[in-house]
TrEMBL record:
Keywords: Lyase. Belongs to the enoyl-CoA hydratase/isomerase family. This is Enoyl-CoA hydratase. SUPFAM superfamilies: ClpP/crotonase (SSF52096). PANTHER family: ENOYL-COA HYDRATASE, MITOCHONDRIAL, ENOYL-COA HYDRATASE-RELATED. Coiled coil: none annotated. Signal peptide: none annotated. PROSITE patterns: ENOYL_COA_HYDRATASE. Its EC number is 4.2.1.17. It comes from the Bacteria. GO terms for molecular function: enoyl-CoA hydratase activity.
Length: 258
């Protein structure tokens, strides 16, 4: 998979996507987001891939949407292109788990991109922010909605209204990230988590993703019912039989995604 703005490697059933626009701190332009949407579509369809890690550089996961690309656009241009809505929707259609591994800046669209992944592991130098207010705009690919669900109204308002950055300790304390590790260990830690996920039944991991995401989309009663029904449905899989037999026989399960 050859791209201009991404580096994609596949090893041990895990795909590692690196955003690669170092000259602009991985600012998200149409080319990069188009390539990312394409890469995710292909990796989702690739039987050799069971989990995906998305990362940037040690200095920046992504410093936001590309301000140079956007600055002269009109409302009509932004609206008719549904600017970055198409790419964001495409990313959200990925059914395999995606871990965001964030070091350095994750600002604006960069923070939003990380939040669209399934969970975030960050380095101790990470800085999250929604500084669009400094540019006279607002987040545009879900920041006001997702950050509020992650960290609550008060902190989300603070971040969006003042444009201040959140460091790794605050991000972990507030539930934005699942783990913080030293920067040199970020990618190894994320890859190890991805390999662990890759060892599970792929059907079950996709179901987990659907269930947890449902918590954002529906009422508690409907979400719990959805979960119970898919829990029941998994008893139609061979992987359920294998997982439970392996436990009872005190051995490691051999899942076959069936
Ligand atoms: C375009 C960017 C960029 C961006 C950095 N660069 N962020 N280019 N769009 N978002 C470029 C700089 O212009 C510079 O290029 C190079 O990257 C290095 O950046 P510096 O500013 O020199 O680095 P530093 O002093 O270390 O400061 C880092 C920084 C700062 C704090 C991250 O770059 C910054 O504040 N960036 C903008 C962050 C931001 O406002 N993001 C939100 C964007 S709006 P040159 O060529 O000068 O060397 C958004 C809306 C999303 O994301 C909505 C989606 C539709």
């Amino acid at each position: 998979m050859a791209y201009q703005t991404l580096i994609v490697e596949i090893e041990d059933s895990v795909a590692l996507i690196r955003l690669n626009r170092p000259e602009a701190l991985n600012a998200l332009n149409s080319a990069l987001l188009g390539e990312l949407a394409d890469a995710l579509k292909q990796l989702d369809a690739n039987d050799k891939v069971r989990c995906i890690v998305l990362t940037g550089s040690e200095k920046a996961f992504a410093a936001g949407a590309d301000i140079k690309e956007m600055s002269e656009k009109s409302f009509v241009e932004m609206f008719t292109a549904d600017f970055f809505g198409v790419e964001a929707d495409s990313l959200l259609r990925t059914r395999k788990p995606i871990i965001a591994a964030v070091a350095g800046y994750a600002l604006g669209g960069g923070c939003e991109l990380a939040m669209m992944c399934d969970f975030i592991i960050c380095a101790d130098n990470a800085k999250f922010g929604q500084p669009e207010i400094n540019l006279g705009v607002v987040a545009g690919i879900g920041g006001t909605q997702r950050l509020t669900r992650f960290v609550g109204k008060s902190k989300s308002m603070d971040m969006h209204l003042t444009g201040r950055f959140m460091d790794a300790a605050e991000a972990e304390r507030s539930g934005l990230v699942s783990r913080v590790v030293p920067v040199a260990q970020l990618v190894p830690e994320a890859l190890a988590a991805a390999r662990k996920i890759a060892s599970k039944s792929a059907v079950a991991t996709m179901v987990v993703k659907e269930c947890v995401n449902r918590a954002y989309e529906t009422t508690l009663r409907e979400g719990v019912l959805f979960e119970r029904r898919v829990f029941h449905a998994l008893f139609a899989t061979e992987d359920q039989k294998e997982g439970m037999s392996a436990f009872l026989e005190k051995r490691e399960p051999q899942f076959r995604d069936k």
